[in-house]
Amino acid sequence: MPSRHHGLRPSEAAQAVAAILDNFEDTERVTRLQAELEAVRAELEVSQATVRSLEAKCESLDGKYNDAMKGLDLMVNQRNKHMQRLETLKQEFKEVEAAAARRVE
Length: 105
Hints:
It is a single chain. This protein has 105 residues and is mostly helical. It has one helix at residues 10-104. The protein is rod-shaped. Residues 30-99 form a coiled coil. Keywords: Coiled coil.
């Protein structure tokens, strides 16, 4: 009959030690994976916050861009009106000049 130490045969003891080591390694691995998961979650939260911030900035910039484009349209329309008025004044000046030249003759 084989000798028993604490009720386990040497092969059983070796298996028990191997199971403990495996379990310890698994525990370390699980702990490491959990830490990595938490780190990734933290990075994701930071990324999501950054995305929200950038979206808010984009909305703000879109509003500013739209306001600027409206202002530009107004300025272009005013410029066009001024150019039309200038052309009208030039034409009137030519007509007055021509009338004055006819009177001088």
